[in-house]
Amino acid sequence: MQSPSTTPRALAPSLTVKPRLIRRLLLPLPIILLMLACGYIAYYTSVQIGIRALAESGERQLELHARAVESEISTHTYLPSLLELESSVSRLLLNPTDYRRDQVNDYLEGLNRRSGSRAVYVLDRKGRVLATSNWRDADSFQGEDLAFRAYFQDAIKGKPGRFYGIGSTTGEPGYYLAHGLRHQGKIIGVAVVKIRLDPLEKRWERARLEAFVSDENGIIILSSDPTRRLKAVHPLSAETRAKLADSLQYHWTTLKELQPLTRQRFAADAELLTLPASGENAGEEQPISYLAQTRRLNDPPWDFTLLSPVQDVRREAASHGMLAAVACALLAFLLIAWNERRKVIATRLAAREALLQANNELERKIAERTADLRSSNERLKAQIRERQQAEVTLRKTQDDLVQAGKLAVIGQMSTSIAHELNQPLAALRTLSGNTVRFLQRGALDTASSNLATINELVDRMGRITGSLRAFARRSDDSGDARLGKAVDAALFLLHPRLERTPLRIHRAYSDARLAIDQTRLEQILVNLIVNAIDAMHGQSDRQLWLDGHAQDGHYRLQIRDNGPGIPPSVRVHLFEPFFTTKPGEQGLGLGLTLSASLAAAAGGNLSVQHLENGGTAFELNLPLLHQSPAEPSRDE
């Protein structure tokens, strides 16, 4: 029986959602404003934090480079007073003669060369140069009248003369240190040392540091940017300009003012400056903003200013602002989507209530179909019973798989025992055959020795089975083994094989006591050497290297051959049980698996390296009992 169809027209008109066009058109505007506000707040906050961090870093650099400037000057402050101890200088000032002038010139030339200064010279009381270190140069100071210099006027009065200026003779800038030379308590002349400070600028340039030093007049005398040199950091009055022009301190240079495009005070000794770009392409580049931090030097009274670019800080802050704006927009869109979702859910709930009302009217018709539902219910119950039976069967199958896994492990261990005993049995077979022949010949001593060896091999087979049982129980994994003894025993077991297959063995290891059972170590070595011999099958040049050394409480022994190597497709399966590349029944695929397990049980490991020039190297890493260096074994 079909139920009457219901159409959307049956829903109440109040349940429909009408879009509000005006609200949707106006909604993006506050979202955009909120995005801009969040972006600006994040940008401003990031800029402030970044500039503070830049200021803290700048304080450390400011202190370091300011001390460097003071140190550069202080290393030469003793030189002028040193001339007071030279008797030839005093005699020249008291009684000038050509001989005494030449004598002092030579002395000053040597002193200047040893001290690394620019020039050293001596002036009489009238300010005329009597002797100078650059007397051989064409622009020598000899005979110059420097009485107008401020450093001479201070030194002749008994004060320390300190002066930065541009030389009137050479036009070369420098810092002058002057000292009044006394004789019997009276000043008879002045000693002057001129030093150059441009090495500081070169150091700043190599360090990519932007900085400048301004003197007591506010003139930049040192700068990492040559275009800023000899510019005033603050406006100069006409009187100051006239005074500086008369003193010729800066020669005939026109003192321009360093005019920042913008200036903003950031702290007591720091401000934000925007300076025009300098260099060849200054007109094409954008202005650069700096954090300018200034520190007053102790001696001389100059100001050291460090300029830290803030472009990176503002660029990072811009990215933070963009991220904040995007995050704000995403959050706003999520809220809008949630609100729309809430409206849709409310609409659906209202529609559901209407459908429930319509469903109540159809209850009568549903009763007529109860019989069909009951039969369907029976079918479902039958399906449930079938699924329950399937679950029981699945559980039983899982138990059988677990039991099969246990049997597989038992089979693997039994095969391992056969693999472990195969090689000692081969040695027993060889020794017993030789013993019969020696007995027939009457060589009783040799036969007795072979029987003793057979007895040792039998004992060793017993130790092998005991070791395998201990390995299965994960007990008694440690021991005390001698590496040299284990190598000799392994080679002895393989002696018949080595006779049939000529092999050159290179030994480069030291005997050591290792924390592993002696039999287990011998078995590992036998497996690795046999694999190497099999790998070199078919080639005439067969060589085997045994290299070892102690490192960090472990001993690393490398067994390396010159065979063709292992194909890449096989490498991932090397340590898997029952995997072998040997044809027929030559191998069970358990040698490397057992060797790796024995090494791991002793606290070590077994790894493999695939050499580029051919061959394979297995590295056995085992813990040492104690370090006992010995002579390396010789090649065989």
UniProtKB/TrEMBL annotation:
<keyword id="KW-1133">Transmembrane helix</keyword>
<dbReference type="GO" id="GO:0005886">
    <property type="term" value="C:plasma membrane"/>
</dbReference>
<keyword id="KW-0547">Nucleotide-binding</keyword>
<dbReference type="InterPro" id="IPR005467">
    <property type="entry name" value="His_kinase_dom"/>
</dbReference>
<protein>
    <recommendedName>
        <fullName>C4-dicarboxylate transport sensor protein DctB</fullName>
        <ecNumber>2.7.13.3</ecNumber>
    </recommendedName>
</protein>
<dbReference type="InterPro" id="IPR036890">
    <property type="entry name" value="HATPase_C_sf"/>
</dbReference>
<dbReference type="Pfam" id="PF02518">
    <property type="entry name" value="HATPase_c"/>
</dbReference>
<dbReference type="InterPro" id="IPR033479">
    <property type="entry name" value="dCache_1"/>
</dbReference>
<keyword id="KW-0597">Phosphoprotein</keyword>
<keyword id="KW-0808">Transferase</keyword>
<dbReference type="GO" id="GO:0005524">
    <property type="term" value="F:ATP binding"/>
</dbReference>
<keyword id="KW-0472">Membrane</keyword>
<dbReference type="InterPro" id="IPR003594">
    <property type="entry name" value="HATPase_dom"/>
</dbReference>
<keyword id="KW-0902">Two-component regulatory system</keyword>
<dbReference type="GO" id="GO:0000155">
    <property type="term" value="F:phosphorelay sensor kinase activity"/>
</dbReference>
<dbReference type="InterPro" id="IPR017055">
    <property type="entry name" value="Sig_transdc_His_kinase_DctB"/>
</dbReference>
<dbReference type="InterPro" id="IPR003661">
    <property type="entry name" value="HisK_dim/P_dom"/>
</dbReference>
<keyword id="KW-0067">ATP-binding</keyword>
<dbReference type="Pfam" id="PF00512">
    <property type="entry name" value="HisKA"/>
</dbReference>
<dbReference type="InterPro" id="IPR029151">
    <property type="entry name" value="Sensor-like_sf"/>
</dbReference>
<keyword id="KW-0175">Coiled coil</keyword>
<dbReference type="InterPro" id="IPR036097">
    <property type="entry name" value="HisK_dim/P_sf"/>
</dbReference>
<keyword id="KW-0812">Transmembrane</keyword>
<dbReference type="Pfam" id="PF02743">
    <property type="entry name" value="dCache_1"/>
</dbReference>
<dbReference type="InterPro" id="IPR004358">
    <property type="entry name" value="Sig_transdc_His_kin-like_C"/>
</dbReference>
<feature type="transmembrane region" description="Helical">
    <location>
        <begin position="21"/>
        <end position="43"/>
    </location>
</feature>
<keyword id="KW-0997">Cell inner membrane</keyword>
<feature type="coiled-coil region">
    <location>
        <begin position="348"/>
        <end position="400"/>
    </location>
</feature>
<feature type="domain" description="Histidine kinase">
    <location>
        <begin position="416"/>
        <end position="626"/>
    </location>
</feature>
<keyword id="KW-1003">Cell membrane</keyword>
<feature type="transmembrane region" description="Helical">
    <location>
        <begin position="317"/>
        <end position="338"/>
    </location>
</feature>
<keyword id="KW-0418">Kinase</keyword>
